[in-house]
Amino acid sequence: MKVAIIGGGASGMMCATMIARKGHNVTLFEKNEKLGKKIYITGKGRCNVTNATVGDTFLKNVVNGKKFVMGAITRFNSNDTINFFNEVGVPLKIERGNRVFPESDKSSDIISGLEKAMRWAGVEIKLNLEVQNISVENGKIVGLIINGKTEKFDAVVVATGGVTYPATGSTGDGYKFAKSVGHSIIEPVPALCAVRLKNNNECKQIEGLSLKNVKLYAKLDDKIVYQSDVGEMLFTSNGISGPLVLSMSSYINRCDLTKLKIYIDFKPGISEDGLLTRLDRDIVNLKAKQTSSLFEGLLPRSLIQLFAKRLGLKLTEKANQITKEKRKNIAFLLKNYELEPISLENFESSVVTAGGINLKEINPKYMKSKLVDNLYFVGEVLDIDALTGGFNLQLAFSTAVTCASDFKDIKE
Ligand SMILES: Cc1cc2nc3c(=O)[nH]c(=O)nc-3n(C[C@H](O)[C@H](O)[C@H](O)COP(=O)(O)OP(=O)(O)OC[C@H]3O[C@@H](n4cnc5c(N)ncnc54)[C@H](O)[C@@H]3O)c2cc1C
């Protein structure tokens, strides 16, 4: 078969390799001047290429499309990814949280490995070539439209990614292609991104403050819509970011953020009552010392002023004059420090796109369109997304290999 792959990212390169290995005539089209521009910036330039977990543990980290990707992540899991890169001469190492990186710590090695695999398999790589659309007649793929002309292909794989970091080439072209042949798109929204807060002045006062061992939770109309594990977060000039916030963003990105409230639990290891007992004890020990001394043992220095302001407490006030009622308020605020979000960060700085090609219209067995014969979608263009840790690249690889499994091995 003559097969076209649109997109030279993680999913496109893996898919091209696997289909070409079966003896088909594969051409990969990439609009950039080079392959894998997004891979290059992954994992802060080190590329967290997969997560060394499988099955349910892996699935827990998939936010949208859990059921849909179940078969794909079984067909080609993180062990397969590790073996694949070993075979192409890119040894990997496992770090904290089962995150897998190239031993060299260079994302460019992952791109070279994928490119090498494609060349070994005989894929024709066409750079600087932007596909304008797919061409379909009578519900069947006939080819691609490039430079206004139709180039014939028996099958087409759309691997154009989402819409985040568009400078890397992911500009949502796949959605346009899909729509033109009748597919529906679940509205793309940013995921794994920072959150902007209403109170910019507060943010500016504590910009750069990093919090460790805290928990976050989010409420919409008094209903908890997200609750984190213990982790880290930080304040930016206009909001919050860091690991806990990125994860939270993937679960609140379809909520009306103007109605959402986010809360920090500064002391997740101790209950509100436990905190009250501790405050009583500390206050007895502090005697007539200032209230600021009480907070110094509880909060980062730069936060104390803001915290006291919310409680209407003067830091110069004597600690032992803090009333029972106010102590209760302190304990409550330590567990429920409210933040008012206004929006998520934009697509330009979000790690992944949630939303994409409606999964109801795709057969998960082969990532094949249910509407058009011999049309496939792989990777982030689909309505799938996962948390940080190497899960998104693994989803790109798993869906790519699953798609390739629909092609007959004509070399056998
Ligand atoms: C800053 C950042 C850090 C990240 N870090 C990690 C990480 O460490 N681990 C992890 O698992 N995930 C990470 N991700 C997410 C991960 O990079 C993506 O989920 C993954 O790369 C998606 O792969 P893809 O092949 O589906 O799409 P993309 O990588 O977006 O590739 C799509 C390709 O298609 C090309 N293309 C688009 N339209 C056309 C067209 N019309 N014609 C021709 N070519 C076209 C684009 O130029 C692009 O090269 C990160 C993302 C970002 C932005």
Q: How is the topology of this model organized?
A:
Blueprint: E1 2-6, H1 10-20, E2 25-29, H2 37-41, E3 50-51, H3 55-59, E4 62-64, H4 66-75, H5 78-87, E5 92-95, E6 99-102, H6 107-121, E7 124-126, E8 131-137, E9 140-146, E10 149-152, E11 155-158, H7 173-180, E12 185-191, E13 195-197, H8 200-206, E14 210-220, E15 223-227, E16 231-235, E17 239-241, H9 243-252, E18 260-265, H10 272-286, H11 291-296, H12 301-311, H13 324-335, E19 337-339, E20 341-344, E21 352-357, E22 362-363, E23 368-369, E24 375-377, E25 385-386, H14 391-404
Parallel strand pairs: 1-2, 1-11, 2-7, 11-24
Antiparallel strand pairs: 3-6, 4-25, 5-6, 8-9, 9-10, 12-21, 13-17, 13-20, 14-15, 14-16, 14-18, 16-17, 18-19, 22-23
Bound molecules: flavin-adenine dinucleotide.
Explain what this protein looks like in three dimensions.
The chain has 14 helices and 25 strands. It has two domains: 2-190 and 353-404, FAD/NAD(P)-binding domain, CATH 3.50.50; 194-344, no CATH class. Helix 1 (10-20) packs parallel to helix 6. With 412 residues, it is an alpha+beta fold. The strands form seven sheets. Strands 13, 14, 15, 16, 17, 18, 19 and 20 form an eight-stranded antiparallel beta sheet that branches. A five-stranded parallel beta sheet has the order 7-2-1-11-24, with helices on one face. The protein is elongated, with a radius of gyration of 25 Å. A hairpin with a 2-residue loop joins strand 14 (210-220) and strand 15. The protein has helices at residues 10-20, 37-41, 55-59, 66-75, 78-87, 107-121, 173-180, 200-206, 243-252, 272-286, 291-296, 301-311, 324-335, 391-404; strands at 2-6, 25-29, 50-51, 62-64, 92-95, 99-102, 124-126, 131-137, 140-146, 149-152, 155-158, 185-191, 195-197, 210-220, 223-227, 231-235, 239-241, 260-265, 337-339, 341-344, 352-357, 362-363, 368-369, 375-377, 385-386. Bound molecules: flavin-adenine dinucleotide. Residues 6-12, 29-32, 37-39, 41-43, 47-48, 130-131, 159-161, 164-165, 169-170, 173, 351-352, 379-380, 390-393, 396 line the site of flavin-adenine dinucleotide.
